[in-house]
């Protein structure tokens, strides 16, 4: 047995529990259910399908990649297929807000959304309050494509003067949300970068903004995102790891191990060769499972 500290999410440091979460429970539960079918009906099902959304979508892709012989079809709805990139981007976004005046509070979400709508609503030929041409909108807000995309909501002289505008430091942070992040090594599917986040739902669920000001001296001041507990445990080595001191270059082994466990492989050759059928559905704007990463 292994004694674990009594702390929230301590299970993440247990290798068996972690591997179960990442992918192993899929095979264990499948095989157990097949035995139950045999016990109850005397035979296994002739057709087997796997369907899931978000984390379940990630599991669907894990299942058909790791155990293609077990399934005839799968539906992966908005799958979280680049979990390592999602985790790392959240950490980098937090670190970028440590500079003086750089924190972008949730009270700024409305002005960012309104400016995005102003820039993008008419890109589909109809100004109706809905951004349909999201590909063009992503390009408009990507600072590597469009210089100074948020110039229209810059505060006078670049200083923070309230919730109706962004300071220069805050603009740099939001531009970072939409920019790619380069890795000094490759991840599970050979990726060496993160594509950045898209546009369109800046007022959704606090968007990408942190409810509290990140403080490098307080490990609990920045939670990252929905996968922060796994990020702290697997990348930082502790449920109370300080994400704001994370060093991407020095964390190669932990990052690659995280990616190898959590990121489904993009090779479905064995599944397709047995005539397996796969449907993937992606959302146009999603800040839990990045459609650009999908």
Q: What does this entry look like structurally?
A:
- This protein is mainly alpha-helical and about 290 residues long.
- Helices cover about 35% and strands about 5% of the residues.
- It has helices at about 15-40, 55-65, 85-95, 110-120, 135-140, 170-175, 230-235, 250-260, 270-275; strands at about 50-55, 75, 180, 195, 275-280.
- The strands form two sheets. A three-stranded parallel sheet has the order 1-2-5. A two-stranded antiparallel ribbon has the order 3-4.
- Strand 1 (about 50-55), helix 2 (about 55-65) and strand 2 (about 75) form a beta-alpha-beta unit.
- The longest helix has 27 residues, at about 15-40.
- Residues about 1-5 have low confidence and may be disordered.
Give a summary of the structure in a few sentences.
By secondary structure, the protein is mostly helical. The protein has helices spanning 15-41, 55-66, 83-95, 109-120, 134-141, 168-177, 228-235, 252-262, 269-273; strands spanning 49-53, 73-77, 181-182, 193-194, 277-281.
Query: pLDDT below 50 for ≥5 consecutive residues: which ranges?
Result: 1-6
State the total count of DSSP E strands: 5
Q: What is the tally of helical segments?
A: 9
**Separation, N- and C-terminal Cα atoms:** 39 Å
Give the DSSP E fraction (strand runs of 2 or more residues): 5-15%
What would the principal axes of the Cα set say about the shape?
globular
How would you sum up the major sheet? Answer: 3 strands, parallel
- Counting helices, strands and paired strands, the structural category is mainly alpha
Radius of gyration: 21 Å
The helix content, as a percent range, equals 25-40%
**Secondary-structure element order, N to C:** HEHEHHHHEEHHHE
Strand order of the largest sheet: 1-2-5
Average of per-residue pLDDT values:
92
């Amino acid at each position: 047995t292994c004694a674990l500290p009594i702390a929230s999410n301590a299970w993440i440091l247990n290798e068996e529990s972690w591997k179960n979460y990442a992918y192993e429970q899929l095979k264990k539960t499948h095989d157990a259910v097949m035995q139950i079918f045999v016990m109850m009906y005397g035979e296994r099902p002739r057709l087997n399908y796997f369907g899931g959304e978000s984390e379940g979508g990630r599991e669907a892709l894990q299942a058909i990649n790791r155990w293609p012989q077990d399934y005839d079809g799968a539906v992966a709805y908005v799958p979280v297929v680049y979990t390592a990139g999602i985790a790392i981007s959240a950490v980098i976004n937090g670190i970028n807000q440590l500079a003086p005046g750089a924190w972008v509070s949730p009270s700024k979400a409305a002005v960012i959304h309104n400016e995005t709508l102003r820039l993008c609503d008419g890109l589909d030929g109809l100004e109706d309050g809905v951004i349909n041409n999201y590909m063009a909108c992503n390009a408009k807000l990507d600072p590597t494509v469009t210089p100074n995309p948020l110039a229209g909501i810059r505060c006078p002289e670049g200083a923070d003067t309230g919730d109706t505008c962004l300071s220069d430091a805050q603009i740099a942070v939001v531009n970072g949300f939409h920019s790619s992040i380069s890795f000094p090594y490759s991840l599970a599917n050979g990726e060496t970068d993160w594509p950045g986040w898209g546009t369109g739902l800046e007022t959704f669920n606090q968007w990408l903004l942190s409810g509290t000001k990140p403080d490098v001296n307080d490990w609990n001041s920045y939670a990252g995102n929905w996968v922060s507990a796994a990020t702290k445990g697997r990348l930082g080595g502790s449920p109370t790891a300080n994400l704001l001191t994370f060093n991407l270059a020095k964390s190669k082994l932990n990052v690659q191990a995280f990616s190898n466990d959590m990121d489904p492989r993009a090779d479905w050759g064995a599944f397709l060769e047995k005539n397996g059928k796969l449907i993937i559905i992606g959302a146009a704007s999603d800040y839990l499972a990045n459609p650009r990463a999908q």
